[in-house]
């Protein structure tokens, strides 16, 4: 059973399951678990791991249109190297500070491989939460940021031996760590609260996120492939245009926001988003499905388990 099937099964008993974070009164709360074997390739520093692990939970807060308040994390490893632990905490502190939140501690445990679980909480605006289920045909389909940075990072991690360099002449593994440290779009999420009709973060990739939003909102999506903002690092590692789109649209783990915005609110939403907001398509009728340049866009992306 994969993650999406598990969520569908749980939704019968947990009616609020399925959005990026749970809503409790005026707060949101979310949790994530990452493992060295599946989430942190060789060459990932503990500083980057702390940043990325806590950042993943902060991204879920952003997707609900909430401001980030605080985060905690579990740090589990075969042994407690004090320098590695300090670096992990430094990364967690810094990513929280990047979104005006506070890292307030966590727990330590032993494990056969480095594993971390993070929890973040946030406060809703007066506009309330932005869920995945409010998109309507005619809305603009928009995204924040640039796509494919995680895919580029993993290819650079694979090249991380001596003599491998990125285009800025930094060692490949150093550039890969830099790309792995994304800034959660909390400020953009807050700006989109009350403007976006549906929203989620892109941890599973653009294509899979669109299929999830389509299912939740009972709509379809038509995207223009050429409008998708692709991170420049993708051009350094992609094997041609087809691979470039694959890395940007299907790979996942970029932690950008995907949202639907009414046409009349689009200009105001763009001006309000400090990280930038780009229209990449439109919300269409459910019968039209999810397409890119008129062709069906496969429901393919990152899958947990």
The biggest beta sheet reads: 7 strands, mixed
Q: Would you identify the regions where 5 or more consecutive residues have pLDDT less than 50?
A: none
- Structural Rg: 19 Å
Helix content: 25-40%
Question: What class, by secondary structure content?
Answer: alpha+beta
Helical segment count: 11
Approximate strand percentage: 15-25%
Distance separating the two termini: 7 Å
Helix-strand sequence: HEEHHEHEEEHHHEHEHHEHEEE
Mean pLDDT: 93
Strand arrangement in the largest pleated sheet: 7-9-6-10-8-11-12
Number of strands: 12
Shape: globular
Describe this structure in words.
The strands form two sheets. Strands 7-9-6-10-8-11-12 form a seven-stranded mixed beta sheet, with helices on both faces. A five-stranded mixed beta sheet has the order 1-2-5-3-4. By secondary structure, the chain is α+β, with helices and mostly antiparallel strands. α4 links the parallel β3 (66-77) and β4. The chain starts with a helix and ends in a 9-residue tail after the last strand. 49% of the residues are buried. Helix content is 35%, strand content 24%. α3 runs parallel beside α7 and α5 runs antiparallel to α6. The protein has eleven helices and twelve strands.
